[in-house]
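[job 0417] fold request received: Lipopolysaccharide heptosyltransferase 1
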Amino acid sequence: MVDILFIKTSSLGDVVHNMPAVTDARRHRPAARLAWVVEEAFAPLARLHPGVDEVIPVAWRRWRRQLGRAATWREIGRFVARLRARPYDTVIDTQGLVRTAVITRLVRGPRHGYDRRSVREALASASYDVRHAVGRELHAVDRNRLLTGRALGYAPEGPIDYGLDRAALAPADGAGAPYAVLLHATARPEKEWPEDHWVALGRSLAARGLELVLPWGTEAEAARARRLAAALPGARVPDRRPLDEVARLIAGATVVVGVDTGLLHLAAALGVPLVSIFVGSEPTLTGPTGTGPIATLGRDGGRCAVAEVEAAVARVLPAGR
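[job 0417] inference complete; emitting structure tokens
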């Protein structure tokens, strides 16, 4: 059996962008055994891809805060032992960072990655046995697919396929009230959309008969979600959930509206009608892409009016909604 190992550890959007490469690899190497090294927080998401046989969690984000503890080093030792327990026929680092290159170097097997001009951190390229030129002007999904294809000896073709089945993931009680998911939170303040804009949009969506759901990931985001919910009719703030449950929440939505955040890319991967708002970043290389209805608004440093978003929602919603 051919053993293939993907190394794409984080963050959420990057993990989602790696899924089409995994789908391609499974299609072209149907008998292969596919494994994926991914940050522990994103492991539930990687496990949702039906083409992945094994998920190997890494906890670098947690370990780096606890390097003075003996328990941390024992855990790192177990991770390294698992990583080296079997040889791989092909190892592919689609991330291209020094920290992922270090992981790649630990694996037994021929290591593939981006060449020095293509990689995100030039030093990482020195860790690969085979280096591939992949244009940096390409979208992240296309870069992952091309690198994987070159490592495995095929040319990627066909539309993007994230390998996720929206119908299978949607909540079993999907016959309940239709709802919109508002992805209001993002890691960088310059990417945020004003709260009064969210309130105005939320009221417009509620007038369409949609319940409003405001997920969150940090305590600051939870506080923001509660402020918005207090000003919106029919809004709810769910408990914090692991990513596989968040995926199910998004899969069941009638529409998703969000700023530049990882969950936005998950919505695109699931094919949910999506409106993305970019006010502090450029969507050309890392914007949402997929086969579902997507409207991408704004540009780096630009503004996005509520009326623009409302019009985009009307375009992506199913007929009669």
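[job 0417] notes: The radius of gyration is 20 Å. The longest strand covers residues 33-39.
[job 0417] exit 0
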